[in-house]
Amino acid sequence: xxxxxxxxxxxxxxxxxxxxxxxxxxxxxxxxx
Length: 33
Prior knowledge:
rod-shaped; mainly alpha
């Protein structure tokens, strides 16, 4: 039960991190253009 919860938190964290990275890249491209 504990491992499953940790895996879920890691999955959500990685998705959030990916969205943040995408946002940073888009913001940089938008500022440069």
